[in-house]
Structures are given as structure tokens and as C-alpha cells.
Design a protein that fits this description.
Blueprint: H1 3-23, H2 32-49, H3 52-61, H4 73-90, H5 103-113, H6 118-166, H7 175-227, H8 231-238, H9 244-262
């Protein structure tokens, strides 16, 4: 569970609702026609941009922003180095006895165990990476579409309200409430875009970049294992996927752990 996404979204919406409640009655901030224009208009506008199946599938992709099992690059590198050590000592068949948590890594290792050519494995896994990233980027694009359409629909709703207000100027007392209702759609559109849709798209983009990096790391590791690289050489190769400040730290931690085991 990514608690940051939940806290961020609830916090942003909570601050807005809190400001409304402290400012007076919340009843004046709810208008059904405004909700229909912003929510319905945004959804239907996105259906013009994207197919129905992709639009509905974006909500499933959105779950990645909330439900996420964090995997550090350092832990993934250590697991790959361990596998390389086993493969170098016992051969690729020795990897069958090792339980691998990461599904993509397990798939690559199993293909290596089955005796597939290293170039074929790299080509197949690369294709899977590209297709998976493409699906995730589609979900991100759809939420960015929501973020683009919501403020526009809010402005359209405001213009509709202003036209209706101007056509009924005979009652001066009704102008104030009518203006307030007209402005609600702009508020709804801004909240939907900036507190939900755009932040969600950014979090999905972060998750996509993280997964792309991890999968390319695994791809390099599988190729190195099949080539029979020395684990230390493989470690140097994979350390490029770590931020520069973590490379020396990870190496020192591993050396300390090995020293403790030797003692």
C-alpha cells in the first residue's frame, strides 16, 4: 500500500473541504447540474480521445498508485548477484532450486534454465518490457486527458451558467446566487484536475519509470548470468542502475556482511 498517495489525495481534498466548512455552509457548494457537466463532460470528452476499453482500463491501472509492493534496486541487484553466483558454481540448472519472488526475474531465469539462446531471451524479454510499459503509459495518458478536460468543462459550465443568468436579469436578487452556481463548475473542474487526475498521472509516470528501470536491470542480469559473468563483474555492471550516492554504500554494506559471515 502506497500510503503517500492516499495521504496526499485525502489531504488535498480535506484542505479544500475544510476551507469550505470553516467559511460557512457547505450546501451552497453542491450543484447537481455542475457535477454532471464536469464529471460527465470530462468522461465523454475522454471517450473521444481514447477507446472505451482503454478508458475503463485506466481505472484498473490507477490501482498501481495505491497498491504497490516496493522493491529497491539494491535488493534486486543483490538477488541477481546471488543467482549469478549459484549459476557459476552449479550451472544454470542449479537455479531451479532457488525461489525467486520477482515474476519477471523468475520468467527470465526459467527461460535460461530451459536452454534458450541468450539473444532470444533478451529479445523476448525486451518485447515484453516495451508492451508492458506501453500499456501503463496509456493509463497515464488517460488520466492526463482527465486533467486537461476537467478545467475546460468547468469553464464551459460557468459560461452556460452566465448565459442563463444574463437571460434572467429581471430579478436582481437572483443574480448573486446564480453567479455562485455558475462559478461552481470552474471549482469542480479545478479540483478534479489538480487534486485527483494530474497527481494520479504523475504517480503512474513515476511507477512506470521505476518498473522500466527494474526490468532493464533484470534484463542485464539475465544476460550476464547466461554469459557466465563473474558475480563481481555483474555487480559492477548492475550498480549503474543505482543513484551515484548509493553505489559505494551498497558495496560497503555487502563487504561488511561478507566479513561478518566469514568471521
Amino acid at each position: 500500500m502506497d500510503i503517500a498517495t492516499l495521504i496526499g489525495m485525502l489531504g488535498a481534498l480535506g484542505v479544500i473541504v475544510g476551507a469550505i466548512l470553516f467559511g460557512g455552509s457547505a450546501g451552497g457548494f453542491f450543484d447537481i447540474p455542475s457535477v454532471l457537466i464536469v464529471i460527465g463532460g470530462t468522461l465523454f470528452a475522454n471517450l473521444i480521445k481514447f477507446p472505451l476499453e482503454q478508458t475503463l482500463g485506466a481505472f484498473k491501472v490507477a490501482s498501481r498508485a495505491f497498491v504497490h509492493k516496493p522493491v529497491s534496486s539494491e535488493a534486486l541487484i543483490n538477488e541477481c548477484i546471488e543467482l549469478a553466483g549459484v549459476a557459476r558454481k552449479e550451472g544454470l540448472l542449479g537455479l531451479e532450486a532457488i525461489e525467486i519472488q520477482n515474476e519477471f526475474l523468475e520468467k527470465g531465469v526459467q527461460m535460461a534454465i530451459d536452454g534458450h539462446d541468450a539473444d532470444f531471451v533478451r529479445r523476448l524479454l525486451s518485447k515484453e518490457i516495451n508492451l508492458n510499459i506501453e500499456r501503463q503509459e496509456m493509463g497515464e495518458a488517460i488520466f492526463r486527458g482527465f486533467g486537461d478536460s476537467a478545467p475546460a468543462m468547468g469553464m464551459i459550465g460557468t459560461l452556460v451558467g452566465l448565459v442563463q443568468m444574463m437571460s434572467n436579469m429581471s430579478d436582481p436578487k437572483a443574480i448573486g446566487p446564480a453567479m455562485a452556481i455558475a462559478l461552481l463548475t470552474t471549482l469542480y473542474g479545478a479540483v478534479l484536475a489538480n487534486a485527483v487526475a494530474v497527481p494520479m498521472a504523475e504517480k503512474l509516470a513515476y511507477r512506470t519509470a521505476e518498473e522500466r528501470r527494474h526490468r532493464h536491470l533484470i534484463l542485464e542480469a539475465i544476460h550476464g548470468i547466461q554469459e557466465g559473468l563473474n558475480p563481481r563483474v555483474l555487480e559492477s555492471l548492475l550498480s549503474a542502475y543505482l543513484p551515484e550516492g548509493q553505489r559505494d554504500t551498497a558495496s560497503n554494506d555487502k563487504e561488511s556482511a561478507q566479513g561478518a559471515e566469514a568471521a
